[in-house]
Design brief:
Membrane topology (chain B): Multi-pass membrane protein
InterPro entries (chain B): Cyt_b561_bac/Ni-Hgenase (IPR011577), Di-haem_cyt_TM (IPR016174), Hydrogenase_cytochrome (IPR051542)
Order of helices and strands of chain B: HHHHHHHHH
Number of domains of chain A: 2
Structural class of chain B: mainly alpha
Shape of chain A: rod-shaped
Subcellular location (chain B): Cell membrane
Oligomer: heterodimer
Helix content of chain B: 55-70%
Number of domains of chain B: 1
Strand content of chain A: under 5%
Distance between the termini of chain A: 21 Å
Pfam families (chain B): Ni_hydr_CYTB
Order of helices and strands of chain A: HHHHHHH
Largest sheet of chain B: none
Number of helices of chain B: 9
Helix content of chain A: over 70%
Number of strands of chain B: 0
Largest sheet of chain A: none
Number of helices of chain A: 7
Distance between the termini of chain B: 27 Å
Strand content of chain B: under 5%
Largest interface: A-B, 39 and 36 residues
Protein name (chain B): Cytochrome b561 bacterial/Ni-hydrogenase domain-containing protein
Chain lengths: 185, 208
Amino acid sequence: MLRRLQRRWSEAPGGRRETALALVLALQAMAAVFFVGDVLADITFDGADLHLVLEAAVALALVLGVLFGALEMRRTLEEAERSRTALSAARGAMTDLIEARFAAWRLTPAETEVAFLALKGFDVAAIAGLRGAAAGTVRAQLARVYAKSGVASRAELLSLFMDDLIAGPVAGEPSGADAARLPAA
Amino acid sequence: MTGTSEETAMPAGPRWDPLVRLTHWGIAAAVLLNGLVIEEGGAIHVWIGYAALAMLALRLVWGLAGTGPARFSAFPPSLSAARAHLSDMLSGRHRVHRSHNPLGALMVYALWAMLAVVTATGIAMAGSPLAPRPGDEAGYGRAAVVAGHDEAAEEHGGAESAAGEALEEVHEVAANLLLLLAAMHVGGVALESRLSGRNLVRPMLKGS
């Protein structure tokens, strides 16, 4: 359920840079082919002279530009793929952590969604709008979430997760003991 | 609240990068325009032909330098794999391919080869796109093309114009074959999409 929610509210658009690079490459490739064609035709019909040598140099530069552009494009795509993978791994880990906590606190499905949105930074009015509920209802649900998790505010709720992200498990404590450190459900 | 299965339920088909999509639709448009719409032999026809060759060249470079499903190594031409895929299709089994499926791969290479023949013969007849040759007063008129570039034609007489006619013959036959292959390609995509229940056109339009 959390993953579905996460997808719904954190879908990021992408690929604009890659598309722009592809367009530039296509233009370069066309220019390169036109110039190479022109140079070949000139050699066939006019023979070589200085003008032609310069033209050939331009054509060569364009061809090299396409080749290096393609390599650059490959790097961009690979980098984007790497950061996508890393981000989704981090997201997955974070989601697992949140899910484990929410399960340990025995939140109801409605409380889970409200707590999740609160973690994402939506205020009461925004959560009410997204869920089509009254602000009072959301406030009551949030209060129950705080009570079940043993915190007094949204900042404290967030700090329960930030603590894990920043510090990691305390030295000497097995990493699986996270649940033991949770405030009583 | 487990929510783990939905992530893995749908195995991903190929995701086409922007360069593959751009060259694909660029070539498709060029082939349709030059084959069916634009009058043959005119200047626009020649420009479009050069543009198509540029797209083809870029795609071939990308087949070596590119990433993932765009690389040649992701869809090697293989008759045995194509046969296996065909029998899969007939028996209703569906495998997800990360690049072109083996039959599609054969079609891709056939289309590229035919496009290479068409553009090469076209350029051999038309010459440079930037400056009309002496003797091409009528632009890239077919008369000038068939006569060979006439300075040369005057010297070599019949040999040149016979070569020109052969070029034109090859160009036309290959162009018609290219259109036929393109139609088969569209049919194959439609059939495979229908049989596998996976829309193969969308990734080529939107990437995934």
